[in-house]
Write a structure and sequence with these properties.
The protein has about 425 residues and is an alpha/beta fold. It contains 13 helices and 17 strands. α3 packs antiparallel against α10, α5 runs parallel beside α6 and α5 packs across α9. Its cofactor is pyridoxal 5'-phosphate.
């Protein structure tokens, strides 16, 4: 299946950078005003200034809290120590990642799906690869995103010059298709109402809603992409949290290799948010409209902008994919899922409608007819608990807050107690 998105290496991207007066603010992109994480940090700091003795519990940012399993750190330590020896030293490695790790990723996550090591690019994380993919696609494409969705998709699109001005009245950028995902449609967009775009960013399980798309839904998405000549960028960063029969990879869907690529990460499985290690799968079957393989252009981008993931991180990745490492990661995921249950039980006992959670480390809580930032402020001021306002993930998140299950157990229990006291 040839897609109509053009390879960036053969086009001349529109660029605003030729003007010395250009600023991202010209598009309405103001990092101070539009970054939810910056606003949260500032409001938290202001709260502590006002209440210096407050014991704040953060259930906001999706950062892991539990130690990396020792079987994994031992692998990194061994590789690090080897670098101090003549036989163990290594310099630059393959930009695409060590062959052994790429083979292990293919065997562990894509067995029987027609993906092999040559389709896999090891990286310093899925977020970094999202930006590299935007460079690949260039500035002349139009993207679609779930609404709500992980902000990096929209932000990287703005930075690449793909969008029009920010529309304050609807809280959207021009030239981006926001696919509404809500309780009413089961958090899956009505594709019959979605116009054609070049690129479709789709995360399952979704951040922030926690919703995992079913096999039937992903089959619809793949058909939609084929019919429209679109490329799906499938973000599977939370696949290991899936506990039902929802697909863990887009490549479980027949025909997906012709229209999709997939990003993934060790961050939320092994606690690698600081270590930085992920991968992107670009199948050989994925072609641009002129028949040019997408993987060839992505390889050019990677080799130009990246010297490869740290050898120490990659050793950790191999540790993750050992039998002992896989068991240890499953234990870590299980711990956070237990935290999720505590949070869900808390809000449900208070009468709130709660979504997600079953297949993700996030709880999506509905506060009908409330402003998300007002709810955030109320919980911070009265319970000393940080959450994330749903509107930070797009206009479809208004009226919700995301509560993260990443936290020490004692903090989760204490936050639950405070929330019960606040909303009893």
């Amino acid at each position: 299946m040839a897609t109509t998105a053009s390879p960036s290496t053969t086009t001349t991207p529109r660029s605003f950078l030729s003007s010395p007066s250009f600023s991202l603010r010209d598009l309405g992109f103001d990092s101070d005003n539009l970054s939810t994480s910056i606003q949260i940090a500032r409001r938290r700091a202001a709260h502590l200034l006002k209440h210096p003795d407050a014991k704040i519990i953060s259930l906001g940012i999706g950062d892991t809290t539990e130690p990396i399993p020792e079987v994994i750190t031992n692998a990194m330590a061994e590789r690090a120590h080897a670098l101090s020896t003549v036989d163990g030293y290594s310099g630059y490695g393959a930009e695409q990642g060590e062959k052994k790790l790429r083979a292990a990723i293919a065997a562990t996550y894509y067995a029987d799906l027609g993906i092999d090591e040559t389709d896999i690019f090891v990286s310093d994380g899925a977020k970094c690869d999202i930006s590299r993919l935007q460079v690949l696609f260039g500035s002349k494409v139009k993207i679609a995103v779930q609404d709500p969705s992980y902000p990096a998709y929209v932000d990287s699109s703005v930075i690449m010059g793909q969008t029009d001005l920010y529309q304050q009245d609807v809280q959207k950028y021009g030239n981006i298709e926001y696919m509404r995902c809500s309780p009413e449609n089961g958090f899956f967009p009505d594709l019959s109402k979605v116009p054609r775009t070049d690129i479709i960013f789709f995360c399952s399980p979704n951040n922030p809603t926690g919703a995992a798309a079913s096999r039937d839904q992903l089959t619809q998405l793949v058909k939609f992409a084929k019919d429209n000549g679109s490329i799906i960028v499938y973000d599977s960063a939370y696949a290991m949290y899936i506990s039902d029969d929802s697909p863990k990879s887009i490549f479980e869907i027949p025909g997906a290799k012709e229209v999709a690529l997939e990003t993934a990460s060790f961050s939320k499985y092994a606690g690698f948010t600081g270590v930085r290690l992920g991968w992107t799968v670009v199948p050989k079957e994925l072609l641009f409209s002129d028949g040019h393989p997408v993987a060839k252009d992505f390889n050019r981008i990677v080799c130009t902008s990246f010297n490869g993931a740290s050898t120490i991180s990659q050793a950790g990745g191999l540790g993750c994919l050992s039998p002992e490492g896989l068991k240890a990661m499953q234990d870590v995921v299980g711990f956070y899922k237990e935290n999720t249950k505590i949070i869900v039980d808390t809000f449900e006992s208070l009468g709130f409608n709660v979504y997600g959670a079953k297949n993700a480390p996030y709880v999506w809580v509905h506060f009908p007819d409330r402003n998300s930032w007002d709810v955030f402020a109320e919980i911070l001021e009265k319970a000393n608990v940080v959450t994330t306002p749903g509107s930070g993930f797009g206009p479809g998140g208004e009226g919700f807050v995301r509560v993260s299950a990443f936290g020490h157990r004692e903090n989760i229990i204490e936050a639950a107690r405070r929330l019960k006291q606040l909303y009893k």
